[in-house]
Amino acid sequence: MTGEDAAECEAVGADMDGPMPEPAAVRAPPDPEDDEIEDDLYGPDGRPAADGPRAPDWTVQVVRAERSVFELCRQWKAGRLVLDPEFQRHFIWKPHQQVRLVESVLARIPLPAIYLSDESEVQSLVIDGQQRLTTLFRYLDNEFPLQGLQLLPGFEGMSFANLEARLQRRIEDTPLTVFSIQPGSDPQVKFYLFERLNQGGISLNAQEIRNGIYRGPGLDLVQRLGREGGPFRRVAGAHRRYARMKADELVLRALAFMERGLSAYPGDMAPFLNGALIEMNKRPTEYLANLESRFLAALETVEAVFGLTAFCRYDAGHPGRHLNAALMDVEMWGFEQVPHPHEFWVERKDAVRAALVALHGNPRFRDAITYATSMTSRVRHRLVTWKQTLEDVAANRRIGDDGFDF
Hints:
The chain has 406 residues and is α/β, with parallel strands linked by helices.
């Protein structure tokens, strides 16, 4: 959860295809530090605020084996071992880290296990161990010499080709423990396994993991809608950096509620989004085209009604700078659930904005978009409350200060 800022929302970038109504407010000039997104999925104790089952009921299908460095390198060169699947980072180890690993192998120090996902009988993806394997393969290809050795200074300056034959064999024959997830395993197995292994250094976030594990037409749709220069980023704030696939995850949240509905929410955002991608990847092209149209229609209405304050929380009647993920759920889902022509909501945009500002004065609603926002009770409260509020606006019923009928 990021801090609040009562200043006006910042300016949004270029227009979407086709004319759009004028924005409801003007954001202040962009602040380079103001790119945070409010997405509080954790409770006061720092633990995930999930009140449903953390993982699906599955049996992990993992096989343990010993494979030599030479064997794995041969698989890689043959294209049967993928070192850099989409969810993995590029090779980032520094020279001293690479040298230390090779020195450890020469000194016969055991290495941590490697984790693979067997996508088919002929191809495996590296889930954990990319940096180690890349380093060893690079050394076998004479891409760097050993420099700054601590344990074995006698090998200083040597590339693989300069080593004695027995030492070359020592590296090539070094056994590595390999755990492989078998084909046909529940797709969420890979997600949770990678999530647990992904603890060192700069860990991948959930969407970065999904980006490689749940590949298919559904993921393609998410990436297309969340791309730089696309309509979602313009409405949400083109100035924001959306680091590490954050825009994709926000798009996926909106699509997940459209695709699966509120009743399917399990009390934990991660399996909810994972399940949505699994389902979307199985959908036919026509279905995904319709889902995309629904998303863009809701987004167009959000922009027409809220303009440059879209997805921003209000404090004392003033919009904050930061995009609020829970409020994005509210605004996108609401216009999807209370279907009226675009022009209908444009005519009532002042009333809709006033109703949302009023709801921010309701402590329960404000908590539902601020703290432990993935809890089922808070997800349900904010979505159902806003749906009822939109229905009241549509029926020209008056809205009280707390967001409800008088």
